[in-house]
Write a structure and sequence with these properties.
This protein is α+β, with helices and mostly antiparallel strands. The chain has 2 helices and 18 strands. The chain has 2 domains: 61 residues; 163 residues, no CATH class. 23% of the residues lie in helices and 42% in strands. The strands form 3 sheets. Strands 1, 2, 3, 15, 16, 17 and 18 form a 7-stranded antiparallel sheet that branches. It has a 6-stranded antiparallel sheet with strand order 5-6-9-10-13-14, with no helix packed on it. A hairpin with a 5-residue loop joins β13 and β14. The longest helix is centred in the C-terminal third of the chain and has 30 residues. The radius of gyration is 28 Å and the shape is elongated. It starts with a helix and ends with a helix.
Length: 242
């Protein structure tokens, strides 16, 4: 009886080892949240989840003819993309309402980020074409077309606008917002043209041709057969001596 129990235990251990080998062979490079890009999102008195969101793994690219957040934002065409090492967002003709007296306009805004597997670094950038803050009764405020990271623009008494806003999380994930708007008192925020990249390649680890079957199902089959064969052989021995 003891020999029979040991045989079953050995077969179970063999199958467990095979399952572990399968998981290692088929698993992704790293467990990480997707790279993503989206056209806009808002928090505060008006709260809106990310719009036109593209992700990898997931759905990419995502293209919409326009975006609309009533009372806050209107745009023309939006295209967001994400892949294993990068993400980007492009928005045509955005118009952001700051107040009854002020708004933000541009011909286009873009953002992008990229993970470099050779250096292990994540970098990002953004751009604004013909961007400006229009103020009733005042001269427009021109927005830098290629602003450095976290460039702040003040609209006195109304809002603070951050161009090329870049935030790096503790795990190295980089978020780039082409335009980030915070109304006075932080009662309302808006992100426009957002790209997010992990500090890792999200592409699955390739399995060499001819190696997947021996390591995967082949190993599982051999180990299962080997384990059960050991058990059956022991059973015959005990049956012969019973």
């Amino acid at each position: 009886m003891n020999g029979r129990i040991k045989g079953i235990a050995k077969a179970a251990a063999s199958m467990s080892l095979a399952a572990g080998i399968l998981a290692a062979a088929a698993g992704p490079a790293a467990a990480a949240t997707p790279n993503e890009a989206y056209g806009a999102a808002a928090t505060g008195l008006i709260s809106v989840s990310p719009l036109a969101e593209a992700t990898y793994p997931g759905t990419s690219p995502v293209t919409l003819a326009h975006l609309s957040i009533p009372g806050l934002l209107a745009t023309d065409a939006v295209k967001d993309t994400a892949d294993a090492t990068s993400a980007s967002s492009t928005i045509a003709n955005p118009a952001v309402t700051l107040s009854a007296l002020a708004d933000v306009r541009a011909d286009a805004v873009t953002s992008s980020c990229q993970f470099d597997p050779n250096t292990g670094m994540v970098t990002g950038t953004s751009g604004i074409t013909n961007g400006r803050v229009t103020l009733l009764g005042s001269r427009p405020i021109t927005l830098n077309a290629a602003a450095g990271p976290n460039t702040s623009v003040s609209v006195p008494g109304i809002a603070t606008i951050t161009l090329n806003r870049q935030v790096t999380a503790p795990d190295g994930t980089l978020t780039v917002d082409a335009i980030y708007v915070s109304l006075l008192g932080s009662t309302q925020t808006l992100t426009l043209g957002t790209s997010v990249c992990n500090a890792a390649s999200l592409a699955p680890v390739p399995v060499l041709p001819g190696l997947a079957l021996p390591i995967g199902l082949g190993a599982l089959g051999l180990l299962m057969v080997g384990g059960m064969g050991y058990y059956l052989n022991k059973r015959r021995q005990f049956g012969a001596t019973a």
